[in-house]
Design goal:
Chain B: It is an enzyme of class 6 (ligase). Chain B: Keywords: GTP-binding, Ligase, Manganese, Metal-binding, Nucleotide-binding, tRNA processing. Chain B: This is RNA-splicing ligase RtcB homolog. The complex is a heterodimer of chains A (226) and B (506). Chain A is mainly α and 226 residues long. Chain A has helices at residues 2-12, 25-40, 49-52, 59-70, 79-97, 99-103, 131-144, 152-165, 176-212. Chain A starts with a helix and ends in a 14-residue tail after the last helix. The mean pLDDT of chain A is 82. With 506 residues, chain B is α+β, with helices and mostly antiparallel strands. Chain B is built from 16 helices and 19 strands. In chain B, helix 9 (210-216) packs antiparallel against helix 11 (264-285) and helix 11 (264-285) runs antiparallel to helix 12 (302-337). The two termini of chain B are 37 Å apart. The mean pLDDT of chain B is 93. Classes of the chains: A mainly alpha (226), B alpha+beta (506). The A-B interface holds A 167, 187, 191, 194-195, 198, 201-203, 205-206, 208-209, 212-219, 221-226 and B 149-150, 153-163, 181-185, 188-189, 191-192, 218, 222, 225, 327-328, 331, 366, 385, 390-392, 394-395, 463-464, 506.
């Protein structure tokens, strides 16, 4: 978290971002005041008194009121979350003031430490937090009769268990497509694999035939019956 | 057999829907499960007439009517589900031809019966496609028919042109189509498009009598007699464009070759030998059946296991036999068109068995069970995505090849999920006899039969013209009725209709 604060403070031009300690109450308060004084300027100067008195006991109340006035969504969160939002807000304002200047900024692509591994198995690349994935699991769960659980991966494991042990439940007519389509795709992929295997088998047989085959006929042996 | 008036018998039969009849318990003694048969109006009449005739006083001898045979099979120990009669059902030895029955492997009393497989073990149909069009073949079909006739020996007592010694035969019995593949008679893709990949792994040639091997050795690569044939056929109608496309049948007029053959004298001898053994086993294990022809043995008895191993060897024999004829067919076409079989795109579409018993997994009453499925005159028809069908047909379902009778059309169907649940993934196998062989000989004249074929523009080569009336279309049920019933019931789906332009026959 503190690293993120450091980056954001540096971006905003804070005089001492390196040594900022968000755990320290005094430093925290002074950063909030610095942000309002220098960047956000939501209050008139005289209205900033409550925030300016960083040693006072009622600073927290003033800070709370300040956040309500900014309509911060993090107002009910912890101190770090609150600071994080205010920092981002300040950056947003800074950017809005100088759109022209920042617009052309380019981020240099960082070199990746790890080699870029592209998995050939599409299942490895599933995004479990994807809402579409969650919705899909939700729908399959209702068909199979798996109860609710906050983690879709656990529900998926439960579904797999049921499908392995019990005969496959008959999907309701309206939902049949959800089961049918992926099943059809899997079957087609399987058939393709099987074809490749069979072709290799045939090639192996033909290779052996080049050694063993010697088909002969002898018409003298032939005899038509009655 | 219980003797009742025809009207009394009918009380045990219930028409469940326009295509399905139920045979209730009590129709024959000791039925463990119910029976069922699938018929349309025309076939229904044939079935019930057969029963009515058998109910007339003084009718003894000959085979029991098909309905009675289905019910007798329902009384065999260990049977699960239902004893199923397919639309082409007609009386046979013990089991009706067109009867399928499954026995629970986990039940120690369950049986295996050679009568439930048939004497021509692994009789089946193979379909080859070409990239030729009817107009390429019509002008030279006489030469082509002759060329096929010269390459593939036919008839009773015919001998094959592929040189084999006793050791080759032993290997072929054990390896099935892998032997043909090793020796270079077939392509790797042929094995891929064959039921069981052309090899039953439990085959054990040491369980086969010397006599069977002696009969079998010279017959490899021959078509045989009876209802067996090789036909040059034309795609006449396509009902399911997607499935047909997956089989490489893209357009009306495309030329195919159908080979219908089995394990010749070899399979017959294996079945005969087993029946003798089983009669002893029945006495020892006190197995009671309603019909002496239903000789059987417990699956896990020595006799049962020996039969299954010998049957598997006979099945392998039949696959090698059809593979050899595939090779000879390709040679005949290559010579005639002066092109390599590769360039003629002469791939095997599929190869089905319609006389065999196999261990399969099925869902019975919601539980997965391992069953010994007897299919006699019944073709396996597995649905899309079944693990035992080739990858190319995973989306369409297994191709089911239904050979018609000489001079009538043939069909390609595909397996369905409904067939999997209703009939253990089984469907019909062909037209099914309407007249017995003897009756056909009495009622029909062979010259009329040959003339009729000629008037239809079908070239024909036969080894024994005087037996041709046994196989005349009039001796059989209408294959279109049979196939339409299977389609209507939903146990398989119509895909392609083929019509013959040249036939070679024993």
């Amino acid at each position: 978290m503190s690293n993120m604060f450091k980056l954001k403070l540096t971006a905003l031009g804070h005089p001492n971002p390196e040594n900022f300690n968000c755990e320290d109450e005094k430093e925290y308060r002074s950063v909030i005041l610095w942000l309002e004084d220098q960047k956000i300027r939501h209050y008139k100067i005289e209205e900033r008194e409550g925030l300016r008195d960083i040693d006072a006991d009622n600073w927290a109340e003033a800070y709370d009121a300040y956040q309500r006035d900014l309509v911060s969504p993090a107002a009910d969160g912890n101190l770090n979350e609150q600071l994080s939002w205010i920092l981002s807000y300040a950056i947003r304002l800074e950017y809005a003031d100088n759109v022209e200047k920042y617009k052309n900024a380019k981020v240099e692509e960082q070199k990746k430490a790890a080699p870029n591994v592209v998995s050939s198995n599409p299942l490895d690349n599933l995004d479990f937090s994807n809402p579409a994935f969650k919705a899909g699991v939700e729908r399959v769960s209702t068909i199979v009769g798996v109860g609710p659980h906050s983690d879709p991966k656990i529900r998926l494991a439960a579904i797999a268990k049921i499908l392995k042990t019990a005969p496959h439940p008959e999907p309701p007519k309206t939902e049949a497509n959800i089961i049918q389509q992926p099943a059809d795709v899997l079957k087609l992929l399987f058939v393709q694999d099987l074809r490749n295997l069979q072709t290799k088998i045939n090639e192996a047989l033909v290779a052996v035939q080049t050694v063993t085959a010697d088909p002969r006929t002898d018409t003298k042996l032939g005899q038509v019956g009655r | 057999m219980v003797v009742r008036q025809y009207n009394e018998e009918l009380k045990y039969l219930e028409k469940v829907n326009p295509y399905c009849w139920k045979i209730k318990k009590g129709f024959q003694p000791n039925m463990n499960v119910e029976g069922v048969f699938y018929v349309n109006n025309t076939l229904e009449k044939l079935m019930l007439d057969e029963l009515r005739n058998a109910c007339r006083p003084g009718m003894t001898g000959g085979f029991l009517p098909g309905v009675k045979q289905i019910a007798n099979v329902a009384a065999l120990p260990g049977i699960v589900g239902r004893s199923v009669g397919l639309p082409d059902v007609h009386s046979g030895y013990g089991f009706a031809i067109g009867n399928m029955a499954a026995f629970d492997l986990s039940d120690p009393k369950s049986i295996v019966s050679p009568g439930g497989v048939g004497f021509d073990i692994n009789c089946g149909v193979r379909l080859l496609r070409t990239n030729l069009h009817e107009k390429d073949v019509q002008p030279i079909k006489e030469q082509l028919a002759q060329s096929l006739f010269d390459h593939i020996p036919v008839g009773v007592g015919s001998k094959g042109i592929i040189p084999m010694n006793a050791r080759d035969l032993e290997e072929a019995l054990e390896m099935g189509m892998d032997w043909s593949l090793r020796e270079g008679y077939v392509w790797a893709e042929d094995k891929e498009h064959c039921e069981e990949y052309g090899r039953m792994l439990n085959a054990d040639p040491s369980k086969v009598s010397l006599r069977a091997k002696k009969r079998g050795l010279p017959q490899l690569g021959t078509l045989g007699a009876g209802n067996h044939y090789a036909e040059i056929q034309i795609v006449d109608e396509i009902y399911d464009k997607y499935a047909a496309g997956k089989m490489g049948l893209e357009r009306i007029g495309q030329v195919c070759v159908m080979i219908h053959s089995g394990s010749r004298g070899f399979g017959h001898q294996v079945a005969t030998d087993a029946l003798v053994q089983m009669e002893k086993a029945m006495k020892r294990d006190k197995i009671e059946t309603n019909d002496r022809q239903l000789a059987c043995a417990r699956i896990n008895s020595a006799e049962g296991q020996d039969y299954l191993k010998a049957m598997a060897a006979a099945a392998n024999f039949a696959w090698v036999n059809r593979s050899s004829m595939t090779f000879l067919t390709r040679q005949a076409f290559a010579k005639q068109f002066k092109m390599a079989p590769d360039d003629l795109d002469m791939h095997v579409i599929y190869d089905v068995s319609h006389n065999v018993a196999k261990i399969e997994e099925h869902i019975v009453d919601g539980k997965l069970k391992t069953l010994l499925v007897h299919r006699k005159g019944s073709t396996r028809a597995f649905p899309p995505h079944h693990p035992l069908i080739p990858v190319d047909y995973q989306l369409t379902g297994q191709p089911v090849l239904i050979g018609g009778t000489m001079g009538t059309c043939s069909y390609v169907l595909t397996g369905t999920h409904q067939g999997m649940t209703e009939t253990f993934g089984s469907t019909c196998h062909g037209a099914g006899r309407a007249l017995s062989r003897a009756k056909s000989r009495r009622n029909l004249d062979y010259k009329d039969v040959l003339n009729k074929l000629e008037s239809l523009g079908i070239s024909i080569r036969v080894a024994s013209p005087k037996l041709v009336m046994e196989e005349a279309p009039d001796s059989y049920k209408n294959v279109t009725d049979v196939v339409n019933t299977c389609h209507a019931v939903g146990i398989s789906k119509k895909t392609v209709k083929l019509r013959p332009i040249a036939v070679i026959k024993g």
